[in-house]
Amino acid sequence: MFESLKIQNFRRLENFKVNRLGRLNLIIGKNNTGKSSILEAMYVYANRGDLSILEKIVEQRDEHLQFSENNADKLAIMQFLAIFSGRNYFDGSPVPIVVGELNNPENVYSFQPIFYKSEITEEVATQKFEGKSSISLNDIAEAWVNVSTTKDIGKDTKLGFQIRYGSEKPFIKSLDGFMDFLSLFNQTEKNNIPCQYIPSSGISNEKAAELWDKISLTDDEENINKILKVIDKNITKITFKGKSTKTPFIRLKGMKDPVSVKSMGEGTNKLLNLALALYNCKNGFLLIDEFENGLYYRLQDEIWDKVFMIAEKLKIQVFASTHSLDTVYSFINSMENHKKISSTVFRMAEIDTKIEAIEYDVEELLLTKNQKLELR
């Protein structure tokens, strides 16, 4: 579990830090102050350099570009550089994206673009290999990585990312997978941390079915039913039906045929998303963008209470963003109900063009919960 947080060079978070985190962390603030960026950065950290995750992130913000044979490399570079502060990694002195804990260099992840040639030139081969009695795979990998600026990009140039954990040697992940192969011989990649990310639009039926399959026929089936009963006590069972695309259905007490979850309303679908995500990230992170979407405000106290208890039991660290004052007050009520479970609230704010976190004292929040907090 992160005790603190630092994020550097990720979107608008150029040098962002939070001094104290808890088991549950609520992020508030105006639009375009980086609330979603924190969740994205944590998602990248948990997935340890998986380039498909970066693709998903840029797709969700419509930054995804269509490739063609003639411009694929350049468009790939432009696409991924959109997540760097300033959106142009090669202006000035480039610095990597950094995500990790303050004052704990061994729990810090960094990555940066790197270009390499698809063929080793004679000049580079002479420089790297001349006079050596033996050549390691690491030597070969380093020989490919010999392009330092976008001016050197040509048809035989490829894009990859250099990734580092703490003080360990960096390894390279490439879009075509070739450098990944070489890295296997030189660097043991960290295992991904269990992590589920619920975007503001919710998760797809396909993703929900995938999460359901992982807990199907376990005790967690009943645990998910218990969470859904918060919204309708007549829910008795959930299942997914369909061949190519599975859709969630629920059975209601007294009804013969099951009904689709979405026909029950947005709140039921959102609560199912939340329940499935919770029971699929034990010992990891749960990231929720705009927690309040679809949830009736009078139910949020009970929902937050369940999230607090499950997160503590399964050792999940929760990060959730919100625009809703009702959600903030429900979260503070749960803080008061579960004082032994660490939790924080911090506000994102733009100060002198930089995004900073304004951290609230827990005891002060509990004492002043009836006063209006600045959300927008």
Describe the fold and architecture.
There is one protein chain. By secondary structure, this protein is of the alpha/beta class. Among the domains are: 48-183, no CATH class; 195-317, Rossmann fold (3-Layer(aba) Sandwich), CATH 3.40.50.300. It has helices at residues 35-46, 51-60, 72-81, 122-129, 137-144, 178-183, 205-215, 220-228, 266-278, 300-314, 325-337, 362-367, and strands at residues 5-10, 13-18, 24-29, 97-100, 108-117, 157-165, 171-174, 195-198, 235-241, 247-252, 259-260, 285-288, 317-321, 343-351, 354-359. Strands 2-1-4-5-6-7 form a six-stranded antiparallel sheet. A hairpin with a 5-residue loop joins strand 6 and strand 7 (171-174). Helix 8 (220-228) runs antiparallel to helix 9 (266-278). It is globular. The model is unreliable at 143-150 and 178-189 (pLDDT under 50).
Apparent shape: globular
Give unreliable regions as ranges.
Answer: 143-150, 178-189
Straight-line distance between termini: 29 Å
Largest sheet: 6 strands, antiparallel
Question: Helix proportion of residues, in percent?
Answer: 25-40%
- Helices and strands, in order, run as EEEHHHEEHHEEHEHHEEEHEHEHEEH
Using only C-alpha atoms, the radius of gyration works out to 23 Å
Q: Walk across the major sheet and give the strand order.
A: 2-1-4-5-6-7
Count of alpha and pi helical runs: 12
Fraction of residues in β-strands: 15-25%
- The total count of strands amounts to 15
Structural class by sheet pairing and helices:
alpha/beta
